[in-house]
Amino acid sequence: MSPASAEELAEAVRRAAEDGLRVKTVGTGHSFTPIAATDGVLIRPGLLTGIRRIDREAMTVTVESGTSLKRLNVALAREGLSLTNMGDIMEQTVAGAVSTGTHGTGRDSASVAAQIRALELVTADGQLLTCSEKESPEVFAAARIGLGALGVVTAITFAVEPVFLLTAREEPMTFDRVTSEFDALHAENEHFEFYWFPHTDNCNTKRNNRSAGPAAPPGRISGWVEDELLSNGVFQLACSLGRAVPPVVPALARVSSRALSARTYTDIPYKVFTSPRRVRFVEMEYALPREAAVAALREVKAMVERSPLKVSFPVEVRTAPADDIALSTASGRETAYIAVHLYRGTPHRAYFTAVERIMTAHGGRPHWGKLHTRDAAYFSEVYPRFAEFTALRDRLDPDRLFANDHLRRILGD
Hints:
The protein is of the alpha+beta class. It is built from 14 helices and 17 strands.
């Protein structure tokens, strides 16, 4: 069903509870897990879209839960405003993005959920609950990344700031250099990330820092060549060939890793943070203590080199500061993210299992919206506030109206 208001959604939740049906909400389906699957009532928030209000004194924006990040960012830019940080795609709904812990990369600025100042959700009793640091703070501490387990999010209030410019510097770098200089590159840049191409010693790095301007976006033709032709079109062909003929993957990786050249450009934040992602893939990502990232990545590289695996997709490394959200992958610790991907249709289990073994040995926390095999017993060990979250779930949803098989595995009964 597609409710047109928070009140209509609340009524649907009450009716489902009376009928003994489970309730889940699905956004754009970007998650790789069955986190939104249900055999009961499936809520689609496609009519809950748009900005409710902008408060320029408090510097916040309140937005309906079904609004896409793209629509939000375009609307904010028209108002001369911006989020502080973003992930690298913007197709998700705002509720879906925050509920699964979507993040970008940042030395000082954290995930999308960490920018929330207030949250409105419908709880299992069909009531509309607003929470913030001052109002129901114990709910706010958990519900910013709630996994759909605490209620149905209907609106989110984000902190915003006057729109600013970012200068992006993209540059090839060797694996040994980027790993040996990782701490310095992280410290020197507001946003640093890199991609390592398996079967090579080649990486591509990206440094985003605030700029006084002027704006200098990529040229229309050069931008199309880099972002569409090479990063999507040619890469799609390389992945398809590698899936059909795995022995050619290392050679293709050597070519792909050298295809993108160094470039610098300046634009408003969402145009710098995000990129078109048209090549379909499956993904697993783990959040590690930042100090463990280089050692873990070197272990992944050594594992790939001694194995028969043929990996066509680059490995992505990003960072985040510690935050105070109970089930945030960066909760309570400086964090680095290592994400592995394989082209859609390529058998992924052997590669992902081997990588997951390395990540869990370092106390890794898997991204809530991406593939992993961990369960509640594991999460209770790597999240110091896991019991706080499950206790709140017991209070807000004692009958598990919002449960499904996936939540039972990762949160327990």
